[in-house]
Amino acid sequence: MLSHEDVERVAGEFLAHAGLELLNSELLQALWADYGFIYAVQAKPIASTASVSNQKLSVGDPLESDGELRLVLKIISPPDAKRDEGHLRKLFSYEVEQYFYDRIAPLLPPSFPVAGEKRNDLTAAQVYSAIKWLADFHGSSWSMRDDYTMHGLLLPPLDELEARRTVKELPPRSIWRNGGYTYLATRQTEYASLARRSNFEWSAVFCKHEGTASIAEKVAKFLNPKGRSFEAFIHGDVKSENLFSTESGDSVAFFDFQYVGLGLGASDLAKLFTCSVPLHMLVDGSAPLPDKIAMQQGELNLLKQYHQLLTRYETTDGTKYDFSDFQRHWETALVDWCRFQASWGFWGNTDWLQGRVRSVVSDESWRNWLNQQK
């Protein structure tokens, strides 16, 4: 484990490269599963290189009135013993996060928010702002698919490790080919465990083969990025813990871009609606939820808001992204998200999620649509 002295040595080296000197560092928190730490850092320009520091940091005018900078250091120090897929996913995710802040974040507008809540519902104002942020992020990414990024997409963790071992000249790595950390290709262990739970409702729903594949496999195949015009850069881990908000909630910004990659914007919405949107914004009334829940007006209104904001942007080939298509994508993303929760553990608006997915998978028109997808 890194000592505080080790952290300050590393911080000092980084800062010196930018023409800064370290004044103080304070531990804020440990990273998930003991993979490192986040520190608050105070620094000031070295007098002889003050003009250089602002240029290298590329953060506009970062100096505060006292001539100091307040920065955040995320330092990665993974456990030595782990070598499984989850370990690889975390290691590669930090590379993706670095790429995002180096290459993609400078293309996005700056925001100056305050921290959101820990695993909690957002206010209505924050929900609307979060939907707007996601629509803007997804839509603006349609114009960000430069060759450098697209040629360096990371594969699922085990495949990425094999590629790094066997391919002599891999392109510089960028973001995930499949954004997020819940897609089926990287959750085969959990999926196999779910399939063995013969008395569990969701085992039969997701794992039973219908023809050549199960519903989970058909859904995963559709959601897997394949160059379609409506695919976007998705955040991959949308929840209130990864959000900053103004005090009024009229503006928000997400952070923690370890799992940013290609995907459908609806996948980000599925997690947001389940984990952070108040239930009363999704369903009508306060009566107990039925086992099957058709889309209600609150959910529809939020989806329409997102779609209207998203379609202000032009898709990669200029084709129109109709709401009817988006709604099918939304239903499919809900099914995929429920599959992950069923294999990992449910949290959030779980009765709503399960009720919605029961409704979707029992809809013959959705099943027929899914079977027709290539």
UniProtKB/TrEMBL annotation:
Task: Give the source's domain of life in one word.
Answer: Eukaryota
PANTHER family, A to Z: AMINOGLYCOSIDE PHOSPHOTRANSFERASE DOMAIN-CONTAINING PROTEIN, UNCHARACTERIZED NUCLEAR HORMONE RECEPTOR-RELATED
Protein name (database record): Phosphotransferase enzyme family protein
